[in-house]
Specification:
It is a single chain. The protein has seven helices and six strands, in the order βαβαβαβααβαβα. The chain has 206 residues and is of the alpha/beta class. The chain has one domain: 3-Layer(aba) Sandwich (Arginase, Chain A). It has a six-stranded parallel β-sheet with strand order 1-6-5-2-3-4, sandwiched between helices. Helix 6 links the parallel strand 5 and strand 6.
């Protein structure tokens, strides 16, 4: 789903399975006419080459994006990872990708992490993908792969607002799973806040 579709406006997609990021990223890069960098906010790196017998899965998204040499700059910055594997950690190192874990955010603070992200992407057009499982299940229980020990809504918002100056050309918010939602609809309300705030941040993007 696109909230903005005009050629001179940024685009926000809503999901759904995180695999939608791959076609959305590719479409926006083609529209822009130049490669994009990726800011990936997620509890998981999603960097498997294959997962459960397929190369096209929510767990292989970043691998497929990096395959698109004409559409991806090859620069990926992770934020909020806390459930990686040895295989994916080794690939992150071998590919020279940047990772800021949930522990990093807690220890260094949102402003410090945002400053590092701004420095890495200073001259890049950026696609921002926000998986709701980057948040602690206390704030977003209604996701496909909940992982305790995550970011708070406040930490995500503070980090996003501190990224002022980045050229965010498109973004998505993904992995909302209504079947896993709380009776209080916690995830839906959290998502609504994130949509509103992210749209405001993107509107101010250079």
């Amino acid at each position: 789903m696109s909230l903005h579709s005009h050629d001179d406006q940024t685009t926000l997609f809503l999901g759904g399975d995180h695999f939608i990021t791959y076609p959305c990223f590719s479409a926006i890069a083609e529209k822009c006419g130049h490669p994009l960098s990726l800011l990936y906010v997620d509890a998981h790196p999603d960097l498997y080459e294959n997962y459960e017998g397929t190369a096209y899965s929510h767990a292989t998204v970043v691998s497929r994006i990096l395959d698109e040499k004409d559409l991806s700059s090859g620069r990926v910055c992770y934020l909020g990872v806390r459930a990686s594997t040895r295989e994916q950690d080794e690939r992150i190192k071998s590919l020279g990708l940047t990772i800021h874990t949930t522990r990093d955010v807690c220890e260094k603070g949102c402003d410090s992490i945002a400053s590092l992200i701004r420095s890495e992407f200073l001259h890049d057009p950026v696609y921002l993908s926000l998986d709701l499982d980057s948040l602690d299940p206390a704030f977003a229980p209604g996701v496909g792969n909940p992982q305790p020990g995550g970011l708070s809504v406040r930490q995500v918002l503070d980090t996003m607002h501190a990224l002022a100056g980045l050229e965010v050309v498109a973004a998505d918010i993904v992995e909302y799973c209504p079947r896993a939602e709380s009776l209080a609809r916690t995830t839906a309300f959290t998502s609504a806040i994130l949509i509103k705030e992210l749209m405001g941040i993107m509107a101010k993007s250079p």
